Amino acid sequence: MSFESDKRFNDFKHFPRGLRRSGEFTVAEADSLEKFGTAMLALYQGAMEPRDEVEAAFIAQVKSGEAGGNPHAKVWFKYLKVIGPKRVHRLCTVAGGAEESNSFDSGNGGGGGGDESLD
Q1: In this structure, how many other beta carbons lie within 10 angstroms of the beta carbon of residue 63?
Q2: Is the residue at 5 inside a domain?
Q3: pLDDT exceeds 90 at position 100
Q4: Does residue 119 sit within a domain?
Q5: Staple partner for 97: which of 30, 55, 93, 103, CB 3.0–4.6 Å?
């Protein structure tokens, strides 16, 4: 059988209340991670060699970055995405954007209402 492991997978560092109660995974995904996650992690880190073609396909798909139709790879990619760095979306501009917007005012007074025209 593929992805055999003696112990259940838990990541209390990222999911202190457990995978099921995190709200990130469906019940089926949490079951799959708990049942096969220890073997998936060992294969992912290279600590274990693949024992059959299913595990070899898992490693190939993880290295290529595409899950395809493999349910194990899909769950593993979702797990990696959830524990990965979070993207921050801002509703304002960053400091570099302010310099670019003021660049049109520093011309020869063409069309702008700069302070030099108030004399």
Answers
A1: 9
A2: no
A3: no
A4: no
A5: 93
